[in-house]
Specification:
It catalyses: an aldehyde + NAD(+) + H2O = a carboxylate + NADH + 2 H(+). It is built from 15 helices and 23 strands. With 471 residues, the protein is of the alpha/beta class. It binds NADP nicotinamide-adenine-dinucleotide phosphate (NAP) and magnesium ion. The site of NADP nicotinamide-adenine-dinucleotide phosphate has 27 residues, from helix 7 and helix 8.
Length: 471
């Protein structure tokens, strides 16, 4: 049993003022693996105070100093990669290949930020003005459980690169990862108070960060409902707010695509991170006259998608993070059946041969209409909808007929046509024939998928305010 009894404030590991114990589980077994003692509002206040005190000096550090800090943080997180990978598997259930990628990503984002900073010019002359980018102040960084270590490091990297100081509120369901990352970041030896990590509940610590007058900026990744709440809470003090929220990303398979390649790729896009990904391609849009061919390929290919033991290198879909999340996904599978969608693969209950753990059968519904609930709402599990279109004009209309706009995928052998379609899709990112991430390009959503952008120069500038000095 793991016991996590400390938070990190002002450069020190301290016992929280909060006394609530929160149970941690291994989602692959549904058994408890330990507990974390949660921070409360008093701890959040102490953390904000420490970050506020550290801000004046830190905001005046040179670019070279901050690049050095980021590189030291990168090296420190690299040094715990194996431990972090094991924790990601144990408390989140990511399949091993994914867990390795996630742990590496947590380190890489720190180096990426150092590189962005290296090339960034904080001042420029515009007309008669010297325009300087100035850090906003103390940033509140709130992360979810579906990539906790990665989001801690990515948000912190951008905040510190800009010269902000930070209070981080990670997901309490990810306390093992947070403990490992915190220990590593402490080793990097930054000045006390520059970053503070207080694991506590969203309704207490998260809510305080969203309204406290000494927090200038909130960067949040999570559900759209909580994102809207944070925006409202921040309005009183006009906080700068970055929101990375949900998605219902379309995967457009064009008639000219090689379906033997496109269908497996679309399944991969849909089932990535066990379906617990805001960018998952959960609506597969296919030409109507080729539906039978697509259905046959899905049935053939889905046998290669194994849901089960995350330690098994054959597994590509791990368990859902919690019982609540498992029940939510089961509920949506039931809704799909009740809405009259055709259950092509998977369905309710546990996958064959599995008796414990929060596993879901990789599920594909076909003959779904875009008005069905399963096509409109973010399920956050391995449940995909196949929707047909008559022509590309209709495909575009369906792709854009969603409250979300985070990511879209186009699979086609006709590059000019794919690019022309991409120009008409309302999404922050469009991936043409690839599933690869580009850390230098901005990431974020149109419409209700969020506000603002992370990564690269855009992500850096989200922690700064331009100031014009005219002379
Ligand atoms: P969530 O409630 O939005 O949680 C995200 C983070 O926000 C957590 O650290 C959470 O803390 C915190 N939080 C909750 N209420 C808050 C408040 N009032 N003020 C400030 N912070 C608050 O997401 P969830 O409940 O874990 O998952 C529910 C659904 O959200 C999922 O099914 C999925 O659809 C979506 N989701 C999206 C993403 C994404 O990457 N866009 C990630 C995760 C979840 P607590 O853990 O204490 O609640
Ligand atoms: Mg929640």
């Amino acid at each position: 049993m793991q016991q996590i009894n400390q938070i990190y404030i002002n450069g020190q590991f301290v016992t929280p003022h909060g006394t609530e114990l929160f149970d941690l589980y291994n989602p692959a077994t549904a058994k408890p693996i330990g507990h974390v003692r949660l921070a409360d509002e008093q701890d959040a206040l102490d953390a904000i105070q420490a970050a506020k005190q550290a801000f004046p000096n830190f905001s005046r550090t040179t670019k070279a100093t901050r690049i050095d800090y980021l590189k030291r943080m990168h090296a420190a997180v690299v040094s715990v990669e194996a431990e972090l990978t094991a924790a990601i598997i144990e408390e989140y259930g990511a399949p091993i290949a994914r867990a390795v990628w996630m742990a590496r990503h947590a380190a890489n984002v720190l180096l990426d930020a150092a590189n962005v900073l290296q090339d960034y010019h904080f001042t420029q002359r515009i007309g008669s003005a010297d325009v300087t980018m100035q850090p906003l102040g103390v940033a509140g960084l709130i992360t979810p459980w579906n990539s906790n270590a990665g989001f801690i490091c990515a948000k912190l990297a951008a905040a510190l690169a800009a010269g902000c100081t930070a209070v981080i509120k990670p997901s309490e369901m990810s306390a093992l990862q947070t403990a490992i990352v915190t220990r590593a970041l402490h080793q990097a030896g930054l000045p006390a108070g520059v970053f503070n990590i207080v694991t506590g509940r969203g309704e207490t610590v998260g809510a305080l960060l969203s309204k406290h007058p000494d927090i200038a900026k909130v960067s949040f990744t999570g559900s759209t409902a909580v994102g809207k709440h944070i925006l409202r809470a921040g309005a009183e003090t006009l906080k700068r707010i970055t929101l990375e929220l949900g998605g219902k990303s379309p995967v457009l398979i064009l008639d000219d695509a090689d379906f033997k390649q496109a269908v497996p790729m679309a399944l991969q896009a849909g089932f990535m991170n066990s379906g617990q990904a805001c960018v998952a391609g959960t609506r597969m849009l296919v030409p109507e006259h080729r539906l039978a061919e697509v259905e046959a390929l899905i049935v053939e290919q889905i046998v290669n998608i194994h849901a089960g033991d995350p330690q098994d290198s054959n597994t590509s879909v791990g368990p859902m993070v919690s019982l609540k999340q498992w029940q939510r996904v089961q509920h949506y599978i039931q809704i799909g059946i009740e809405e009259g969608a055709h259950l092509l693969a998977g369905g309710p209950g546990l996958p064959d041969g599995i008796e414990a753990g929060w596993f879901v059968r990789p599920t594909v519904f076909s003959r779904v209409t875009n008005q069905m609930k399963i096509a409109r709402e973010e399920i956050f599990g391995p449940v995909l909808s196949v929707i047909t279109y008559k022509d590309e004009t209709q495909a575009l209309a369906i792709a854009n007929d969603t409250p979300y706009g985070l990511q879209a995928y186009i699979l086609s052998s006709n590059a000019p046509k794919a690019h022309a379609l991409a120009a008409h899709i309302d999404a922050g990112r469009v991936l043409i024939n690839t599933l690869a991430h580009e850390p230098r390009a901005p990431f974020g959503g149109f419409k209700q998928s969020g506000i603002g952008r992370e990564y690269g120069t855009f992500g850096l500038e989200a922690f700064m305010e331009p100031k014009s000095v005219l002379s």
